[in-house]
């Protein structure tokens, strides 16, 4: 149990909190502090994406305001990344942050390239924090490499003393607790304000403001919303054809570079080789390695002037041009709590010859189905194909199977056919959950794939396929099944 742990300041970088504890503890060895707090024996890159936070939280004495959720939201760098992860990816990261002895794979590499190696300060924030709290600290928003100015004071950030060039570093224990550098130079006197006099300065300020906007609104931004907005704006700009498919990647790249200029992008840290032939596919569809958040911010600025406008401004006249509409779409799983509700917010579209296919997946139950429309007329075609019934269906189906498992196993050993002649059975809709349940019941009674298929008006292969999903061994198919009538 710790004797104390300092309270956090607004937007304080998590490493700054630990550093203040280190200074107050009187222990001269940072590695010993790290082991005491987190049960780890390294300092390097520990604060970009912290881990074993539950070890710390369980040892903070008395009542305190810290929680895993609060540290992640208010003092880590993850909120800027969260809107671009799926829920499953982000939840896995949170579990690793809470407690892991291994390397956090998801998120760590992306964040490492986004965070400055040297600690950066706003000279005005240094002074204001010292006057308000009695000490200065490291602000999280200032540590992103592409945030070059303080979004609150519009002053350029510094990573070393402009007078003596003394850098501000974690591992050398040179974090500032006052508005003076280690050589006693008064840093607020070096504050340099930006006046928005050039396109570059305007862009630098917009990126800083939009970074702050995402961090403060991450709970309202999610990957499906971003993907949908990209589709709408790309349709409006003509980068997608009327059927919703990518057609002008080269035009997007040219317009993007003309809007910002290569020189200005390089100032922010974007290299020209990052704008390659798969640029639109990766970023507009959020596929593969799309985690360069600066490129997303710049795309949103290009499309709508700011991240806020991009997410909140309604786009008109796009509905008729999008196959299957803009959504949301219904979940068709009869077992799902959101059945027949428009809960699916993502449609993945692809085309083959004259048909466009749309894939819809319910995040609540995993049920996934596809629909088709004509590529020329955009008219929906009949029929829905179920690709995956999802985890909820599989779990419920397994529960029903276990009720009849012993009878089914006995039936497969006997492998005799009990033909039902006079009994009338009401058959539910094919492949519904009630139909699957009836299949287990009928097979356990008639002991025959063929007879089960006849009763349920399906094929022997379909019956066997359903049963084999639940068993490692299925009795071999015997075409010469005997016939036995039952009254």
From TrEMBL:
Coiled coil region boundaries: none
InterPro entries: TniQ, TnsD_C
TniQ domain location: 4-157
Pfam families named in the record: TniQ, TnsD
UniProt domain Transposon Tn7 transposition protein TnsD C-terminal: residue ranges: 208-474
Protein name: Transposon Tn7 transposition protein TnsD C-termianl domain-containing protein
